Known about the structure:
11 helices, single chain, 316 residues, globular, binds NADP nicotinamide-adenine-dinucleotide phosphate
Amino acid sequence: MKTLTDLCKKDSLNIEGTVIKMNKTKILILGGSSYIGRYLFNALGKDRAIPTYYKNPINNGIYFDSLSMDLAQILKELNSVSHAVILLNDTNFETSAQNIEKSNALNIDSLKLIVNCLNHHNITPIFCSSDYVFDGIKGNYTEEDPVNPIITYGKQKVEIEKFIQKTCDKYIIVRFSKVYGSEEGDGTLFTNWLEEITSNKKISCAYDQIFSPVYIDDVTTAIIELIDNDCNGIFHISGNVAFSRLDLLEILLKHFRGKSQIKTEVVRCSIHDFPFIEKRPLNISMKSDKLIKTTKIQLHDINTICKKIVFDHFKK
Ligand SMILES: NC(=O)c1ccc[n+]([C@@H]2O[C@H](COP(=O)([O-])OP(=O)(O)OC[C@H]3O[C@@H](n4cnc5c(N)ncnc54)[C@H](OP(=O)(O)O)[C@@H]3O)[C@@H](O)[C@H]2O)c1
């Protein structure tokens, strides 16, 4: 017969069906080499987090190819993981739509195997979903609104959301709006425009694509708070204000004009003027009231971050 000491040597203790996690404090970041993963790992630190990478190695990272490897191989070495943040994905909407079978293999099939494996090891999944789960007709979506994706990437996210809701007792699903940073060269929304503005490129910008971008530091803070507060369910991680893409460019330009003359030509257009494979949803703005109420997080505002981006650029 097993003694209590024997049981306690394991990761969890089961008393009348209630699984109590013991000494499990680490967070596995699946896709630690992603844009968001790198910031999350930095915020958590190497004592608390274990990141994985595929093609782009990172310090203290573990190699993991979700298409050819079994996550159990990795978990065998790690007996202290309480949560796993699932960031890995084909994040390119065009390649996802171009070869649906190929992107389904990564974004659906491999993620289902990962979720099953996490369940087996009693690890809570934190699935990183997107505002593209919505059809963009209503806008200002809350967690209560029904999903209805119209592009492949969004359909894949919904399939995993539903799979997790069906198979996991405990889970966190976070739906990010477009995530932006403030470091020049980071390849995000405003810093990309900054490069175009400084090289006097023509910028075609949609007046009818509406969303609620969120600052990268708020994303990492929100994920950590949701884990530390032992939250469960779906949370929108977005700014709380809806903007058109053109409004956002104007905010950046306003700060730039205060420092320098601008020769960039801005061409006002519709999102449907771009030759995307699939028609994009128009208004996928989300509300983050549930997140704010639950975690008391104070979100950065876009005007302040745009001011900082321009200030840092001219400081160099
Ligand atoms: N960024 C946003 O604005 C945004 C908005 C909404 C939702 N999201 C979601 O948030 C998550 C992270 O987004 P991101 O923009 O930070 O991602 P990203 O920079 O495009 O990184 C994608 C990640 O997937 C990994 N990966 C690709 N193929 C893999 C494979 N076969 N096996 C294991 N790992 C593989 C990559 O590893 P290597 O680089 O090492 O190859 C990388 O870590 C994604 O799920 C995305 O859908 C992001």
